[in-house]
Amino acid sequence: MPRCFDRRWILQLIPIAILSVMFIGVVTPYLQQQQTNSEAYKVLYNDTNATRMGQRVVNGSNILHIEVLVSGLNTDSFDMTLTSFITYIPDKLVDQRTRVLLQPFRLMVGRYSTVVSANSSNPYGPMPAQIPLVIGSISQYPLDRYVALLKIEAMTGLGPHTGEKAEKLDVRMTFYGVEDYAWDYHVKKLSDNEADRLYVGSTENADMFTISGSRKSNFYVYIGLMWLGIWSVTIAVGYIGSMIVIWDRKPVDSPEIFLTALFAVPAFRNTAPGKPPYGCLFDITCTYFAITVIFIYLLTVAIKYIKKKKVD
């Protein structure tokens, strides 16, 4: 007698085929994207002809060229980390024969400043700075977006209170952003009207920028799986509990499944990238619902379990 083909094998192979297609569909574009973004940084803003970090740019006698590296965003201290480098000093400030600095100048990046004079040991050294965020809140996690205001100004002289006449130096700059896994950075130069409206203080001799940071698309893959996972637990617990309590289906042998889910949901939620505090948008849309459903059915199923009649 011929052996019949068991169609359950087809049902068994369908999930395997779907998972295989999903695996290839996710990994292939990810590897292609990482190969494209193989450099450690990318250009965010550029008003020079520089194409890479550290490139010496000949801008002319009246232009100071700097590079600004955006290297981090901290939601705990609520600031961005920048590192600035001077890459070209204007020719009019330097003796072209001896390369001696004829006139000192100061560069201000945000609330940080450096003075370059003939006694400076390394005028091209790094200048770290932290600038505060002015827009954004962690309460909107994972849809949070942050903006910082940056003021860049260069003047001749040692300081604003030395009594010497100061002259504005034109600045050309290149912004670079590190290839951060979590954050995607954008830089925009503000017009005079925008700068006066957003910045408290004088912007007469300065260039004003906004630096924004938003979550990368790769970040949302795990967050999306977390959100679906917590809602899956919520639906499963709610379905099992309602079948037992409301529809009086087969009595539950033990309420331990509900107790386990009560501890599993917060533990799973704590794996969210960035360690967001409880009470953010993510919790409002899934975690609170899950804990509430589990708590309700944990109590009702436990009461039903205690009241269950003994079988003689």
Quick check: average pLDDT?
A: 85
The poorly predicted ranges are: none
Which class do the helix and strand fractions yield?
A: alpha+beta
Total count of helical runs of at least 4 residues: 5
- The gyration radius over C-alpha positions equals 30 Å
Largest sheet report: 10 strands, mixed
Give helix and strand order, one letter per element, not per position: HEEEEEEEEEHEHHH
Count of folded domains: 3
Helix content: 25-40%
Which strand-content bin applies to the residues?
25-35%
Ends apart, CA distance between termini:
48 Å
Give the number of DSSP strands.
10
Shape: elongated
Please provide a written account of the structure.
This is DUF4436 domain-containing protein. It comes from Thraustotheca clavata. The chain has 312 residues and is of the alpha+beta class. It has three domains: 1-38; 39-215, no CATH class; 219-311, no CATH class. It is 34% helix and 27% strand. The protein has helices spanning 8-36, 192-198, 217-245, 256-269, 281-306; strands spanning 41-46, 63-74, 79-88, 105-109, 112-116, 127-135, 145-156, 170-178, 183-189, 207-215. Strands 1, 2, 3, 4, 5, 6, 7, 8, 9 and 10 form a ten-stranded mixed sheet that branches. Strand 2 and strand 3 (79-88) form a beta hairpin. It starts with 7 loop residues before the first helix and ends in a 6-residue tail after the last helix.
Keywords:
312 residues; alpha+beta; 5 helices; 10 strands; elongated; DUF4436 domain-containing protein; DUF4436; transmembrane helix; membrane
